[in-house]
UniProtKB/TrEMBL annotation, chain A:
Keywords: FAD, Flavoprotein, Oxidoreductase. InterPro entries: CO_DH_flav_C, CO_DH_flav_C_dom_sf, Diverse_Substr_Oxidored, FAD-bd_PCMH, FAD-bd_PCMH-like_sf, FAD-bd_PCMH_sub1, FAD-bd_PCMH_sub2, Mopterin_DH_FAD-bd. This is Carbon monoxide dehydrogenase medium chain. Its EC number is 1.2.7.4. It is an enzyme of class 1 (oxidoreductase). GO terms for molecular function: anaerobic carbon-monoxide dehydrogenase activity; FAD binding. Pfam families: CO_deh_flav_C, FAD_binding_5.
UniProtKB/TrEMBL annotation, chain B:
Catalyzes the oxidation of carbon monoxide to carbon dioxide. The keyword Oxidoreductase applies. It catalyses: CO + a quinone + H2O = a quinol + CO2. Dimer of heterotrimers. Each heterotrimer consists of a large, a medium and a small subunit. Keywords: Copper, Metal-binding, Molybdenum, Oxidoreductase. It comes from Pseudoruegeria aquimaris. InterPro entries: Ald_Oxase/Xan_DH_a/b, Ald_Oxase/Xan_DH_a/b_sf, Ald_Oxase/xanthine_DH-like, AldOxase/xan_DH_MoCoBD1, AldOxase/xan_DH_MoCoBD2, AldOxase/xan_DH_Mopterin-bd_sf, CO_Mo_DH_lsu. The lineage of its organism: Bacteria, Pseudomonadati, Pseudomonadota, Alphaproteobacteria, Rhodobacterales. SUPFAM superfamilies: CO dehydrogenase molybdoprotein N-domain-like, Molybdenum cofactor-binding domain. Residues 31-140 form the Aldehyde oxidase/xanthine dehydrogenase a/b hammerhead domain. Its cofactor is Mo-molybdopterin cytosine dinucleotide; Cu(+). This is Carbon monoxide dehydrogenase large chain. GO terms for molecular function: anaerobic carbon-monoxide dehydrogenase activity; carbon-monoxide oxygenase activity; copper ion binding; iron ion binding; molybdenum ion binding.
Amino acid sequence: MIPAGFEYHRPADIASAIALLQQHGDEARVIAGGHSLIPMMKLRMADLSHLVDLQGISGLSGITIGEGSVSIGAMTTQNALITDAALAEAVPILREAALQIADPQVRYLGTVGGNVANGDPGNDMPGLMQCLDATYTLVGPDGERQVAARDFYEAAYFTAREDEEILTAITIPIPAAKGYAYVKQKRKIGDYATAAAAVLLGEGFASVAMTNLADTPVHSDAASAALAEGDVEGCVREALQAIDPQEDMRGPIAFKKHVAGVILRRAITKAQERAA
Amino acid sequence: MKDEITPEDRVANLKGMGSSRKRVEDVRFTQGKGNYVDDIKLDGMLFGDFVRSPYAHARVKSVNKEAALAVPGVLAVLTAEDLEPLGLHWMPTLAGDKQMVLADGKVLFQGQEVAYVVATDRYAAADGVEAVVVEYEELPVVVDPFKALEPDAPILREDIKDRTEGAHGPVRHNNHIFTWEQGDKDATEAALAEADVVAEEMIYYHRTHPCPLETCGCVASMDKVTGKLTLWGTFQAPHAIRTVVSLISGIAEHNIRVISPDIGGGFGNKVGAYAGYVCSVVASIVTGKPVKWVEDRMENLMSTAFARDYWMKGRIAATKEGKITGLWCHTTADHGGFDACADPTKFPAGFMNICTGSYDIPTAYLAVDGVYTNKAPGGVAYRCSFRVTEAAYFIERMIEVLAIKLNMDAAELRRINFIRKDQFPYQSALGWEYDSGDYHTAWEKALDAVGYDALRAEQAQRLEDFKAGKTRKLIGIGLTHFTEIVGAGPVKNCDILGLGMFDSCEIRIHPTGSAIARLGTISQGQGHATTFAQIIASEIGLPADDITLEEGDTDTAPYGLGTYGSRSTPVAGAATAMAARKIRAKAQMIAAYLLEVHDDDVEWDVDRFAVKGAPERFKTMKEIAFAAYNQAIPGLEPGLEAVSYYDPPNMTYPFGAYICVMEIDVDTGETEVRSFYALDDCGTRINPMIIDGQIHGGATEGYAIAMGQEIAYDEMGNNKSATLMDFFLPTAWETPTYTTDFTVTPSPHHPIGAKGVGESPNVGSVPCFSNAVHDAFRPFGLVQSHMPHDHWRIWKIARDLGLHG
C-alpha cells in the first residue's frame, strides 16, 4: 500500500491544468478528492507519473440553482450536496443518494466531479445523473463541450472524456416530477451497491437508472417509458433486461438480478408515495 | 486514633474489585498518545518489505535481485538462499511443524513471503519489491481439505513427503498432518446405534481472520557494541518470543530484549512468529542498523494467522424425550500450507474436546484430522481459547438440529440436558473437569429477561402474516448457552514449544505507599493496567490509582506466557492476587511489630491491620509500607515486594446465555438484529464496565463472523477477501445494540474466583446469531446452512426453500 513516485502539480487555472495533461499525456491524471485514485495508486494499480491537483483552481466548486436547472462545480464535495438546503429543495434525490455514498469522512473530501468522471460502475452518482438526464461540461485544449451523462459511459473506467479534457461542471435539469427515490442495498457502510436504483416519477413521466449492475450505469428508456405509463412490472422487466451484473463477493449473478428487481420495486413504491 | 471515614468509603477509595473504574489506558489512547510499533523511530532506521507470491502453489525457479538493488535506497534483498547458511530459511511453528521464512524452492499459498527488501526508507523498500523479478512455475492447487486427502492429490509439502509419523502421531497421506482422538469411540457408536433418535449434520465453521486494527510488525535493533538485540513488536507473548528468538538465532537469551509496546488488538493474530520478525532481525544483524517492518492490511489478511476453517461432522443421539445419550464428532481441519496453529503442544486441535458444551452427555467421541491445503497457515484462537469457538458453534448447532428432529423447543431441549449445579465439579465425557456452574439459573434468567414465550408468540404471528402475504420479513430467535474452557493452563498438561503455561506477577510497594506491578502478560486493549491494579488494591488496601502496571518488557517483567485464550485473569490475575497476599503476609508481621502485639493478634480490614477486638488500634498499609523500608524490624528484611509464579490447578469454565432476535428480509437477504441479550457468568467480576466493554466488542466480532466476515479463496487459491471492502468489519452503523446481564458463580480454585471473560462474547455470540438465522427458516424446513450469513447466502436459503414464489 505504498505508491510509486510521482510529480505533484497544483495549477492555478484550467488552462494550466490542461497544458499539463497535454504535456504528459497518459502519464498524467487529474485528482479531485482522491478517494478513488489514491487507493488505486497505493495498490500500484494506477501507474502514473504526474498528478494534477485541481484544488488550486478557483471556480470549480459550488452549487448554483438557476431557472430550470442546477449547476454543480466538479470540485463540490458530496458533503456539500448533503448540506445545501436549496439543492435539497430543488433536486431532493441528490441529497438522498449522496447520503448513501461511503461514509462521512469520504464525503467530506470526495467530489461529485470525481465520482462521475472516474467511470467506476460502483459509484452512485453516474446512475443518478443518467436518471436526472444531467449534462457534463468537459474542457479541453479545443475549448468546452457538453456531453449527456447518458452518453458518457462506455465501459468500466472508460468514458467519453478525452485524456486531455477535464470535467468541470454538471448541469441538472430541475425535475418537474415530484416522485423520486434512490434506494441502495449494500453490505455495510462504505460499500458499493449490491444493487441500487434511481427513480424519478411524475405525471406521465418516469426515469429509471441502476447502479453497479453492469460495467456502466444503466439507464433504460424502455423501463422509464413503461413506468411513465404506470406499468411497474413492465418497468422492472425492462430494467432487468438491461442490466448485466457480474459475480463478486456480494453474491452470484442470480442473486444480483433478483435483488435488482426488489430494489427497483422499492424505489418505485417510494417514488409513488412521494408523487402522491 | 479515630478514623474519620467510614469503612464503606475506605473500600470505595481503593477502586478495587467490583468497581467500574475508568480505564487508565484511555487517557493516552483517546488523545492519540499511544505508542505503537509503527510509532518507534530510531536513528538510521531501515525499512523492510516483502516480495510475495501471486500464486497459491508454484515452484520458484529464480529470484532476480538486480533491478531491485539498483533502486536508489535499496540496500539488500534477502532470499531463502541468503538465510540458509544461518539456518533461518525455515522456522519452527508453534504446532511442531516448520514453516518457510522465505520461499525455499516453492510457495504454498498466495501472499507467501518470497524475498525481503531492505531500504533506507519505506518508499524505496516498496519500489525495490516492485523491481524484484521472480520466475514461477505454477503447480496444481488444492483449496479443499477433502480433496487434499484424495489419493492422487498433489503433494504440497515436498520437504516432508512420504513421512509416516508427524508431530502428533501417525499420518496416512502426504497432506495429512495429524489425527487427534478423544473419548470413547465404541461406547459412543453403541449409544448412537441404540438411540431412539439420532440427528446427523455437517457443521462448517468457515475460515476467517482476527484482523486486529493494528497489523503485525516489529523493529529489530542489534547493538553491535553491546551485542544486545532489542526487538519491539506486536507480540501477544513477548517472553515466549524472546525464548524462541534465542533458540532459533543462537543469540543468548540475556542478550535479547523483547518489548511489546501498546498493541492495537491481537485476538490471537499476534501470538505466533512471522517471517517479518526473522527477516528484520537478520537484516539488523547484517547492517548493524535498526530495521522496521510493518505489514499493510492486505498482507495481514493474506498471510498472517487465520482462524477456524473446521468441517465438523456431527451425530447426536437422544431418547425420544430429548435426553442426550451420546455425541460423535469428526472434524476435518484445514490448516493451510504449514501447521502454524497456536495450541498447547498436547492439543493439536486445541480444546475442541470441550464440544460437549453445557450438557450432561454421558458418552462422546471426537476425532480431528489436520490437513494441508494451499491456503495461508494459522488456525489461531481468534478471541477464543484454542478452538473453543468451533466447539461451541458445533454443539450449539447440533442442539438446534436435534430439536428439529425431536420437534421440540430448543430452549426446553437445552434445559433438560444442562449439567446440574449439584454435578460440579463435573467430569466431561471428553476428559475435562468443569470447575463450577449454574446453568439452569442463568438460562431461566435469560429467558425471563427477553420474555421468551411472548417472543415465540410474536414470531408465530409474524409467520402467519408472512404466509398470508402481509409481510416479507421473518423473525428469528437465536439461542445459545455456551461453556468455555479458558486460562491455559496447568503446566502438567499445557505447554507451548515446551514452555509451561504458568504466569507471573511481581509487585513492589514504594515507601510512600504507592506501588508498581509487572506481569508476564501483555494487554492489547483488555485494560490490564486498570483491572490488575484493582486486584492488588483489594488485596493489599492501596488505592488502584496509586498502582502502576507494567507489562511487555522482558528485561523488567517476570517471565510469563502472554495474553490470549482468556488466560490473563485466570492465570496472571491469580499470580497477582498471590503476590499481593505475600506482601500482605509480611505487612501483617510489620503491623504487629508496630502495634506491639503478636502476629496473630492483628486482622486485615480493607486497607489496614487492626488489633483484634480493638479496631481503633491499627496501621494502614501506607504506614506499614513506610515502616517496611525505614524502620529496623527484628527478624525481617527491609523492603516490601513479592513475586508469584502461578501454575493453575485447573482451567476455568466461564459460561453464558445469549439470546438474539433478528428480522430477516427474505427477498434481499438483509438482516437486522432487533435485540441481543448477553448474560455472562465469568465468576468474580473485577471491573463491570470493562466486562461490558469486552462483551460489546466480542459480540460485535461474533456478529461480523456470523453475518459476513470470511477469508474466501477461489479454485486457484486466490484470496478473494484481502481488503476491508470485502472482509467485513462492522462499523458503528452495523453494530447491534447489546443488553448485558450476569450471574456470579466463582471459580472454586482461583484465588479470587475469577474466570476470565474477554472471549466469551465471541464464543457465545456466533452460534447465537447463526441460530437466529436458522430459527427464522425452521418452519420452512431449514436444518443447516453454513455461515457467513451474508445477504446472498440468506437469499439463497429463502430461494431454495421456495420463498421467492
